[in-house]
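[Automated response] Your request has been received and processed.

Submitted sequence:
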Amino acid sequence: MTTKPSALITGITGQDGAYLTQFLLDQGYEVHGMVRRSSLEKFDRLTHLRDQIELHQGDLLDQLSLIRLLERVQPDEVYNLAAQSFVPTSFEQPLLTGEFNALGVTRMLEAVRLVDTSIRFYQASSSEMFGHVREEPQTEKTPFWPRSPYGAAKVYGHWITINYRESYDLFACNGILFNHESPLRGKEFVTRKITDAVARIYYGIQDKLMLGNLDAQRDWGFSGDYVRAMWMMLQHDTPDDYVVATGEKHTVREFVQHAFEHVNLKWENHVEIDPAFFRPADVNTLCGDATKARETINWEPEVSFAGLVTMMVDADLKRVEDELSKTPAKKNKAG
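Generated structure:
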């Protein structure tokens, strides 16, 4: 009798957690998720998968809870996706960001070291670590220069993962993921803020979209493509670190333009700049070179930039249409 491979995902309720859960289930995995204790359960992204997975309480701030969780679940693979993931919040809560994104990684690695060193470990690193970029495009060898508490904490998490790999012979990988979006992205992120606003403007619910730096350039991909790269890293013969990116960069303005054009609206009529949305120290441009991932683990992105924007706008149009179906009197498409 063949035993299913098992995986533990921290941050399972997030965008990447939901896509990774579905992907692993499709691969025949037994999937476990770690969730923090809360009086309000927020499992919207996992609603259709709840009967196929097991959720367990645990916290990256509590070392003992991580040890007990690994002892109970006995996973073959751990995907550490949990983090304080919103860059602007890291300026407001830098210490908490460090606890989750830096020391939290150390606690999970230490739990793996103490419980079972055969567990394969994935750490969610970030392109925000490059910050004030030293070269373009960015590769695994590009020096880090983070421009936010989020980026700085991710640098710590990245290097402590390498340190545990080299010190304790753990199979530990860092995925340096560039910006990746989807219809499951939270509305606080600029991409989803844009597509949600486009849908609401299209249906006449709102008129203006307030944004910050339209000239910021990012390498945007699809979350569903990127979780596949996470898994592929842990299936390789040797642990290593990989940039995961499309190799194309686009401005926020381009994202806005594509989104509004999809519903035949002129973005200039609806977008206004609000200085409140500018960061204290901004990252002006990011563009990744995923040659190593392509040549070593055979990963390639499948969804294009235009396809991603269209996918997200269509999903938000459907959401808003569903909302309005309950209150039809408010429905008034923009012309």
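Summary generated for your ticket: The chain has ten helices and 13 strands. The chain has a mean pLDDT of 94.
If you did not submit this request, please reply to this message.
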